[in-house]
Amino acid sequence: IETQRQTIEERKKQKKALICNFFKEIDFSTCPISDFGELKNGYAFRSDTYDCNGSHRIITISNVTGDRYTNMSNHNSVRTLPKDIKPHQILQHNDILISLTGNVGRVSLCSVDGDLLNQRVGVLKVFDSFYKQYVYHLLSSRHFEQSMIDRGQGAAQLNISKTDIENYNIPIPHNKSIIPILSNTLNCFDERIEVEEKLLGKYEEQKQYLLRKMFV
């Protein structure tokens, strides 16, 4: 298990190093996120409408962990859609989600079509699909998360705003043909990390099984 954890950390370090070295070797300019997309807020669900047997899952800030996809092992649900819910609050697969409260600046992708967006989670609607994966990889970096933590306001827990995110600057290569190449390479790293994390989960399940058997 420990070896597997080290393998995962090494993969993450390799991905980070790839991004850093990439921008040392190319010419680029910086542009605010608002040039590429708009952040939209979630719906204010009432807790008394939650139903554990509901067919519509709700994504809250606890589900946006910073992993590639939202962690829905624990989630709230509702049976019916609110009449006043907006189209962007019914999510699509691979929508870019950002936590706006508490652990601010965490970024994950929506794992399936049809999940619902709760308040204090933002969805970044990228105008041009050409940039979508590229923007996701830049925002899923530690640099973005730390930048949002630095901008966060609030005594009890941090909060960031639509403006904080849309004013964040990202590097854009002058040679735009490089963008899909980098995005696809980083996707491969993420897919490999996912495989390694699933394997780690299997090892941990085996350990718990063996521990239970020891005391039967």
Count of β-strands = 9
Number of helices: 5
Question: How would you state the average pLDDT, rounded?
Answer: 94
Overall geometry comes to globular
Strand order of the largest sheet: 2-8-5-6
Which class do the helix and strand fractions yield? alpha+beta
Oligomer: single chain
The percent of residues in helical segments reads 25-40%
How big is the Rg?
19 Å
Terminus-to-terminus distance: 23 Å
Major β-sheet profile:
4 strands, antiparallel
Summarize, please.
The chain is 39% helix and 17% strand.
Task: Give a structural overview.
With 216 residues, the chain is an alpha+beta fold. It has helices at 2-25, 132-139, 142-151, 162-166, 178-214; strands at residues 28-32, 37-41, 56-59, 76-78, 96-99, 107-109, 116-117, 121-126, 169-173. The strands form three sheets. The protein has a four-stranded antiparallel sheet with strand order 2-8-5-6. Strands 4-3-7 form a three-stranded mixed sheet, with no helix packed on it. Strands 1-9 form a two-stranded antiparallel ribbon. The two termini are 23 Å apart. The model has no long low-confidence stretch (mean pLDDT 94).
